[in-house]
Amino acid sequence: MKKTFMIIAMAAIAFASCDKSPQQEAAKGGQPSELKIAYVEVDSIMTQYNFCKDYSLILQKKGQNIQNTLQQKQQQFQNAVANYQQKLQQNAYTREEAQRIEASLQKQSNDLQALDQRLTAEFQKENETYSTALRDSIQHFLAKYNKDKKYSLIISKSGDNLLYAGEELDITNEIIAGLNKAYKSAPADSTKAAAKK
User: Fold this and answer.
1) Other C-beta atoms within 10 Å of 179: how many?
2) Cα 124 from Cα 186, distance rounded (Å)
3) Contact yes or no for 73/112 (Cβ under 8 A)
4) pLDDT tens string 102-128
5) Per the confidence metrics, is the pTM higher than 0.90?
6) CB atoms within 10 A of CB 11
7) Are the beta carbons of 182 and 65 closer than 8 angstroms?
8) Which residue, of 9, 52, 86, 188, has the greatest Cβ tally within 10 A?
9) Which residues of 13-38 are buried (b: 16+ CB within 10 A; e: fewer)?
10) What is the number of other CB atoms lying within 10 angstroms of the CB of residue 142?
11) HEC string for the chain
12) Which stretch of 11-15, 73-77, 96-100, 168-172 has the lowest confidence by average pLDDT?
């Protein structure tokens, strides 16, 4: 909704500036201004920008490690519960032993829930860090890129949020090539360091 509003607002500004004739602009002492717009396909950046590819692999690996850890702990807990129930049915415990084991199992259950919450929070924080780094790298590159190109507006296109735009306004491939070149030449990249963990 915000994107649609922003596009409509920019269109209104563009139309308002188009209403001014070159004579009116010249009378003000300025040059007629031209609104230069381009767009970038966000989906293409996500699949073709090497930073995204690298970090996606890192996040996928971390997510799988978390899942494996939690499954292993859950299986150990379930085995301990099954073992306890089997021995309890065989009257292998005194009442005090049974209470002590039940308390231990309750602690394991609580610890498992706490571990799940902690690992999930760490993974979410890693995702947020990635999103921030991605946004910063794109904005930093676009600021340098636009010094020569002089676009008034560069719009992100995701799915069908842009109703119509001519192909000549699509600078996606140019942006992806520039992003990958900048990423490749970046010194001591933190993503590559994180991949080794």
Assistant:
1) 24
2) 26
3) yes
4) 999 999 999 999 999 999 999 999 999
5) no
6) 12
7) no
8) 52
9) eeeeeeeeeeeeeeeeeeeeeeeebb
10) 19
11) CHHHHHHHHHHHHHHHHHCCCHHHHHHCCCCCCCCCEEEEEHHHHHHHCHHHHHHHHHHHHHHHHHHHHHHHHHHHHHHHHHHHHHHHHCCCCCHHHHHHHHHHHHHHHHHHHHHHHHHHHHHHHHHHHHHHHHHHHHHHHHHHHHHHHCCCEEEEECCCCCCCCCHHHECHHHHHHHHHHHHHHCCCCHHHHHHCC
12) 11-15
Which is nearest to 115 in space by CA: 72, 78, 149, 155?
A: 72
- Token pair belonging to 178: 């520039």
pLDDT at 196: 45
pLDDT exceeds 60 at position 137: yes
95-149 helix and 172-185 helix, angle to the nearest 10 degrees: 110
**What tokens does 137 get?**
């790298």
Give the position of tokens 């090539």.
Answer: 177
